[in-house]
Design goal:
The protein has a domain of 70 residues. The termini are far apart. Helix content is 70%, strand content 0%. It has 109 residues and is mainly α. It has 4 helices and no strands.
């Protein structure tokens, strides 16, 4: 399957899954965010253009793509959060049932 099709599809699937986790386990999602942030800073700060005896480590070819993909997933989850903050009232019951099942329904006026 073509990566140009697969990566956006995986981004949407993982983005929705991460938003679902964030909406149900906000504390642990935040802990994972902090760990990811520290690892990203370390990864970006370590020089990646060093002389290798034979060839670069097995992880280097995809590591930089992973950094960009994690950043994209973060922006995706933030976008879903922003959408959830200003949904039309008619969409709220479905949104809450998908992502916030313990949230009481909004009062109708």
């Amino acid at each position: 399957m073509n990566a140009l099709f697969l990566l956006p599809l995986l981004t949407v699937v993982f983005g929705v899954l991460l938003y679902w986790v964030r909406s149900r386990c906000r504390f642990w999602y935040g802990v994972c965010e902090l760990i990811a942030a520290v690892l990203l800073v370390i990864f970006i700060s370590v020089p990646h253009q060093v002389a290798y005896i034979d060839e670069p480590p097995f992880w280097e070819p995809w590591a930089w793509s992973a950094v960009g993909w994690l950043a994209g997933l973060y922006v995706f989850v933030r976008g879903m959060d922003n959408i959830g903050q200003d949904l039309p009232a008619s969409w709220l019951p479905l949104w809450r049932s998908l992502f916030f099942p313990s949230t009481p329904p909004a009062p109708t006026s």
